[in-house]
Design goal:
The structure is a single chain. This protein has five helices and ten strands. The longest helix has 15 residues. It has two domains: 99 residues, Rhamnose-binding lectin domain (RBL) (Jelly Rolls); 96 residues, Jelly Rolls (Sandwich). It is of the alpha+beta class.
């Protein structure tokens, strides 16, 4: 039950930031995301199949896109706040058509950074987002796994059932979602207590999103 917190990844895209950029052969252009989010490249094309980036000869020859370009661009850009896109055969390969006036097309979105907090029993903290961005809670765990070493070391665990987990998750979402900041406390009085003799902890995984983005 703890792995979602330790290995948390962004799972909600900021769809308002979907972008497409064209880089003509020989040029370099920069793409970037706002603070609090990182690049995720969704598509990339290096070749010629339209009238983009015209040259004097009318570009009569088309060039099939390279199958490896997506992996190359993702390697340079994914999870970064910004990166440079270099539209050269040296960087992306010739595709077997080195004389064609190719161009690079990259589609990407900006994914909010995933954040996580761990609160030992009775601890209090504030979740905050930058500027006017809003909170979206993704996962909540309230209890203790038998193998956990969090908060006072291992114990016999707390067999929190699905209904109890849903109750605690709904409570945290109700006070935090769509807010710029919120106070949360690892408190049995509000989160429920199916095993009162066990020292529990609260794990919350959340993202910050621009206020114009839809929430779930």
């Amino acid at each position: 039950m703890e792995s979602f917190f330790v290995d948390a990844v962004p799972i909600q895209m900021d769809m308002a930031s979907d972008e497409s950029i064209v880089v003509c052969k020989g040029l370099t252009r920069y793409i970037g995301c706002r603070d609090g989010s990182n690049i995720l490249v969704t598509e990339a094309f290096w070749g010629r199949d339209s009238a983009e980036c015209p040259s004097d000869n009318g570009d009569p020859v088309m060039c099939t896109g390279s199958t490896s370009v997506l992996a190359l661009v993702k390697s340079d850009c994914d999870t970064k706040k910004g990166c440079s896109l270099e539209a050269t055969s040296t960087k992306l390969g010739s595709n077997g058509c080195s004389d064609v006036n190719k161009y690079l097309v990259v589609n990407y979105t900006c994914v909010p950074e995933s954040k996580g907090v761990l609160l030992c029993d009775s601890a209090l903290t504030k979740l905050t987002c930058p500027l006017t961005w809003i909170i979206e809670v993704k996962n909540v765990f309230w209890g203790r796994s038998a193998s956990s070493t969090y908060c006072d070391g291992p114990s016999d665990g707390c067999a929190t059932n699905e209904n109890a987990l849903l109750f605690s998750e709904n409570y945290v979402k109700a006070i935090c979602n769509n807010q710029n900041e919120c106070l949360i406390k690892a408190d049995s009085a509000v989160l429920g207590d199916t095993c009162p003799v066990v020292s529990k902890y609260l794990l919350v995984n959340y993202v910050c999103k621009p206020p114009t983005s839809s929430t779930t």
